[in-house]
Amino acid sequence: MVKISEIVYTRPDRRELLDKLADFRLRFRAAQNVDEFYEVHEQYKKFDEEVGTNVRIAFIRFTQDTRNEFYAAEQDYLDEISPEIAVANAEIARCYLDSPYRKQLEKRFPKVMFVNLQMAADSADPRIISEQIEENKLTTQYSKLMSGIVIDFNGEKLPMSGISKYFTSADRDLRRRAYTAWGQAIEDNKAALDELYDKLVKVRTAMGRKLGFDGYSPLGYMRMQRNCYGKEEIAEFRANVLKYLVPLATEIRAKVGRDLGLGKQYLYDMDVYTAQEPKPIGTPKQMFAAASRMYNEMSPETGKLFDAMVESECFDVMSREGKEAGGYCEGLPAYKLPFIFSNWNGSAGDVDVLTHEFGHALEFYKSFFIDSEFLSSVSMETAEVHSMSMEFLAYPWIDLFFGDKTPQYKLAHIGGAVTFIPYGTIVDCFQQTCYDNPDMTPAERNQLYNSLEKQFLPYMTTEGLPALQDGRRWQRQAHIFQSPFYYIDYCLAQFTALQFLALSQKDYKATFDKYVRFLDFGGTKTFTELLDECGLLSPFEEESFKLVVASCKQILGL
Predict the structure, then answer these.
(1) What is this structure's pTM?
(2) Which of 88, 141, 413, 502 has a CA-to-CA distance to 122 between 20 and 30 Å?
(3) Mean pLDDT, the chain, whole residue set
(4) What is the DSSP string of 438-461?
(5) How many domains does the chain have?
């Protein structure tokens, strides 16, 4: 079995790629019948898998060590050529959209594929190539800047992701000092961060306007594959979060405050739910053994995939200097393997990220075998349902990781899920407002963020944290810089995952089967169609909030 570290990376040559894509385009258009079209389709799929795998290998190795000069240069190169390649692929997408065999194609491929291809083709316009190149360079600069920060704290030299292990400490003063040091790191780099985001807003706005929009938002929604809801539905979701989930989150935090005697609650209290942090037991090796047992008992499919990923070295989980912050799951289609990247730091979040990213891995694996998936993958909110729901579906085995601290873990995990949604809604509202008003100054953006926190997080304050009081906490959220409008997908998904949690309390097997059914569709249905298909509530309806809140209160004993 292939090991990720042994995969040979081959640089995708720009000229060869463009020539090959041009040849595919000509062959699609020259097809004399639908069978010839399908033959070209199969060859194009294999080519796309090979190129995509090389691009992903370069990305993985760059994020594993952003100081690696070779892969840093490769990432710069790929950032530079990707907009032109995207345009060439968009022209191939039009071969499917404009094919004289369209009616026959629609019998083989799902309807949503054509909707998504149309959005992809429209958003990969050659008129905005130069702006896309600039956008890629700026997001890579952000990644390098944040991963290069080292914080001297408590006798350690820690990356931005590493210091977060102190955020859940039982020692309140230690948490305060950790947040102060973390905030100071952002403060020390505020000029560069302000400049990067200002440039990103302006270059993205220029893209939207070049394509005939008032600003970036319509283009941003197309790029995020919004194929079944829009700005109005998200505004309705946001209003219901404020009406229903903010009071629930406030009630949860009030309970935590009473239990722990916190009094006034500060930013550095927000990750704490119990007197002692429920930390995972055992070494990383033992945690992987526990995960293998869990996934083998969960289902034959999950067990087989997990063990195959371990054997192929598809996990890079330990935090270290030079490694990019955060976590992700990436797919390597040529090898039918997912890859999981994270930054373990000894906290309960290590288990969360393992189960979360394995939900993505399971979806990647299933989608490798869906014919249309390379052309039209699942939308982001659907993909996040896969991962966030897996966190809850791991509950029957969670004692393997937390032993007698399992009740405390569940309180923190469910409480964190509920309180996350208001935070995620802030991130989305912040971005929407910034792109609706692209001439805002850095100070105005910070004021906006502060005002949103007061509205959606009324139970906490940043007082006493000088570097974070001015409203620049948003600058550590990579999605704001790298993936605009992504964050609301997490909120919609978390809301849906909470439904899976509620259902699993009544009938685990039926709920797991429903979850697998949700995954099996891949990108062949829209998010709202999937909800209907699987009998789940829509997050765009007020009634669903009433039901989710009632369920969470019952589970948490509120």
Answers:
(1) 0.85
(2) 141
(3) 93
(4) TT--HHHHHHHHHHHHHHH-TT-B
(5) 1
